[in-house]
């Protein structure tokens, strides 16, 4: 993805990962990872299941400590969650049966910045409705969250993220199980956030969307396989190295083929 016309982006390192390793018991999830992320760029984390994509996001979000090495935000070690970093987990991690409506789900993200015993005011509700409007969900504000489709649920997650107004957005499988309009909305929002200098990092299995919506791709399989522009990273050799020799790069959810054909 080329820089947007008129965008002034300072290519300093906002996030730095040095010699990062994470172990779950005796099992390594990440080993010796070195990678950086700049303001105003969209980066896709790509790799097979168990490659460490979600683990890396959790370390950057400050909710999982590294076993070795360090992750830094603006030159400060990441030791706990920060208001500057917005983490959007996979939809399957949420309890969608909880008896609460869409507007309240979005508002709940403001609790850590205020007393939980105070009612939400008109300004906060207006901001939450504005975030829902940006993702096309304002008309669903009073609907119970369990009645939403997968794409609508993902849009609610996006509205929550927008309301937090961080400088880094970490999204775990945002394209998974959603409809084409929601995929397109995600890409459009990534462009808007990127143009305002935000850093967007998403883990995804959708190779087409990773390629078409990202400035850079970080290809993982517990360690760094390759990183750089989509053209540099998404080669047959790199994909074989990450996914194994039996990988088939299939058509994506938008019914458009990738540029890589089949890897057998």
Describe the 3D structure.
- With 264 residues, the chain is of the alpha/beta class.
- It has a single domain (15-243), classed as Rossmann fold.
- 30% of the residues lie in helices and 22% in strands.
- The chain contains eight helices and ten strands.
- β9 and β10 (224-228) form a beta hairpin.
- The longest helix is centred in the last third of the chain and has 16 residues, at 180-195.
- The radius of gyration is 19 Å and the shape is globular.
- The two termini are 28 Å apart.
- The model is unreliable at 5-10 and 250-264 (pLDDT under 50).
Radius of gyration, Cα only, in angstroms?
19 Å
- Whole-number count of domains: 1
Question: Unreliable segments (pLDDT under 50, ≥5 consecutive)?
Answer: 5-10, 250-264
Percent of residues in β-strands: 15-25%
Q: Mean pLDDT, as a whole number?
A: 86
Number of strands: 10
CATH topology: Rossmann fold
Instruction: Tally the helices.
Output: 8
Written as H for each helix and E for each strand, in order along the chain, the element string is EEEHEEEHHHEHEHEEHH
CATH class: Alpha Beta
Judged by helices, strands and strand pairing, the structural class is alpha/beta
Reported CATH architecture: 3-Layer(aba) Sandwich
Helix content: 25-40%
Q: Which homologous superfamily in CATH is the superfamily?
A: P-loop containing nucleotide triphosphate hydrolases
Q: What separation lies between the terminal Cα atoms?
A: 28 Å
């Amino acid at each position: 993805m080329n820089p947007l016309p008129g965008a002034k982006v300072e290519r300093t390192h906002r996030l730095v990962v040095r010699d990062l390793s994470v172990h779950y018991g005796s099992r390594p999830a990440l080993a010796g990872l070195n990678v950086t992320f700049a303001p105003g760029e969209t980066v896709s984390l790509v790799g097979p299941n168990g490659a460490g994509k979600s683990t890396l996001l959790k370390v950057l979000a400050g909710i999982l400590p590294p076993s070795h090495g360090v992750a830094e935000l603006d030159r400060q070690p990441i030791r706990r969650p920060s208001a500057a970093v917005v983490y959007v987990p996979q939809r399957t991690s949420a309890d969608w049966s909880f008896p609460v409506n869409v507007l309240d789900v979005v508002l709940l993200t403001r609790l850590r910045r205020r007393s939980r015993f105070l009612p939400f005011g008109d300004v906060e509700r207006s901001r939450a409705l504005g975030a829902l409007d940006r993702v096309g969900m304002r008309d669903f504000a009073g609907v119970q969250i369990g009645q939403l489709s997968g794409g609508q649920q993902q849009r609610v997650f996006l509205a929550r993220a927008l309301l937090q107004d961080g400088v880094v957005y970490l999204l775990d499988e945002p394209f998974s199980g959603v409809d084409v309009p929601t995929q397109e909305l995600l890409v459009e929002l990534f462009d808007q956030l990127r143009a305002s200098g935000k850093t967007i990092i998403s883990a995804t299995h959708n190779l087409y969307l990773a390629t078409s919506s990202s400035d850079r791709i970080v290809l993982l399989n517990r360690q760094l396989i390759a990183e750089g522009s989509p053209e540099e990273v998404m080669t047959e050799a790199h994909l074989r190295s990450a996914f194994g020799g039996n990988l088939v790069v299939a058509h994506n959810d938008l019914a458009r083929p990738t540029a890589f054909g089949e890897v057998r």
